[in-house]
């Protein structure tokens, strides 16, 4: 899955993604996304029985201090007009905070500094499309809220099999799992079977990879499933999913190891799942394929 190599472990994330219309290209250095969608907030009520279980210090402060790294559209990125951090993850965390009767206070940080800041008590939790895995569970606990994997996209009506793309052109973002591992491994298998190799077409930005597909310059692109789902939502007349997502793993919110906050967050997001509000938030951002029905703590087994 996508990003700076090694930054996120099993599922890595893209540094820049589709910014809106098919031809909109976003510069990573601006740390904003142009022409983003206007997504309605799902209004959520406080649940006193869950809110009562918040740790005393958080209850007293009235806020959850959340470490976040942007941009990663559609999960978390800066609205170019207001400068506020918005996205699927943000709407879901805001809903969880509403259940708990507090506000979410988002603090930007380098991705690799978020977990150490949670350990130090600077942040209550992290929210940056973290993959829950057993290695990270040695340091923090994860409240799982989503399932992500690799997802290919193709032009409408032009079927591509991700498991048999020999001789095809496939766009990726540079330094991602797709660039470094997935496509090279699949191309090697093609050659070993006596078939043409896959022509990997790397781009500095995921938005450029998606645009190349929209324009027919490549046969497909491969990226993290939320990124692909959002690109499809933004270009639904031009591109579509190519097969199911694969190599799924949970996204989770990291909290300090052994903290009672984990169980409170789990109960709050489970309430949203049971009420249907979680599903609505996923649908608003076009990422419902990764929606889960049960939140667990430290659900990853690998």
UniProtKB/TrEMBL annotation:
<feature type="signal peptide">
    <location>
        <begin position="1"/>
        <end position="24"/>
    </location>
</feature>
<dbReference type="Pfam" id="PF00497">
    <property type="entry name" value="SBP_bac_3"/>
</dbReference>
<keyword id="KW-0732">Signal</keyword>
<feature type="domain" description="Solute-binding protein family 3/N-terminal">
    <location>
        <begin position="63"/>
        <end position="289"/>
    </location>
</feature>
<dbReference type="GO" id="GO:0030313">
    <property type="term" value="C:cell envelope"/>
</dbReference>
<dbReference type="InterPro" id="IPR001638">
    <property type="entry name" value="Solute-binding_3/MltF_N"/>
</dbReference>
<protein>
    <submittedName>
        <fullName>Amino acid ABC transporter substrate-binding protein (PAAT family)</fullName>
    </submittedName>
</protein>
<dbReference type="InterPro" id="IPR018313">
    <property type="entry name" value="SBP_3_CS"/>
</dbReference>
<comment type="similarity">
    <text>Belongs to the bacterial solute-binding protein 3 family.</text>
</comment>
């Amino acid at each position: 899955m996508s990003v700076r190599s090694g930054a996120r472990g099993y599922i890595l994330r893209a540094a820049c993604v589709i910014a809106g219309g098919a031809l909109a290209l976003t510069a990573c250095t601006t740390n904003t996304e142009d022409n983003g969608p206007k997504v309605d907030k799902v209004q959520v009520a406080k649940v006193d029985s869950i809110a009562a279980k918040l740790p005393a210090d958080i209850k007293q402060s009235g806020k959850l201090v959340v470490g976040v790294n942007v941009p990663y559209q559609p999960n978390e990125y800066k609205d170019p007009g207001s400068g506020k951090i918005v996205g699927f993850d943000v709407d879901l965390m805001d809903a969880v905070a509403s259940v708990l009767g507090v506000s979410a206070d988002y603090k930007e940080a380098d991705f690799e500094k978020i977990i150490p800041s949670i350990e130090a008590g600077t942040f209550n939790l992290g929210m940056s499309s973290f993959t829950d895995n057993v290695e990270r569970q040695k340091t923090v606990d994860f409240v799982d809220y989503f399932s992500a994997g690799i997802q290919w996209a193709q032009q409408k009506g032009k079927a591509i099999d991700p498991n048999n793309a020999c001789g095809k052109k496939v766009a990726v973002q540079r330094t991602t799992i797709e660039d470094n591992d997935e496509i090279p491994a699949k191309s090697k298998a093609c050659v070993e079977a006596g078939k043409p190799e896959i022509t990997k077409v790397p781009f500095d930005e995921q938005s450029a990879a998606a645009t190349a597909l929209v324009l027919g310059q490549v046969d497909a692109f491969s990226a993290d499933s939320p990124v692909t789902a959002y690109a499809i939502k933004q270009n639904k007349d031009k591109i579509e999913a190519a097969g199911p997502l694969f190599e799924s793993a949970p996204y989770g919110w990291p909290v300090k190891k052994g903290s009672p906050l984990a169980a409170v967050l789990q109960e709050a997001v489970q309430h949203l799942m049971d009420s249907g509000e979680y599903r609505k938030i996923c649908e608003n951002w076009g990422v419902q394929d990764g929606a889960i029905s049960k939140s667990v703590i430290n659900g990853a087994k690998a």
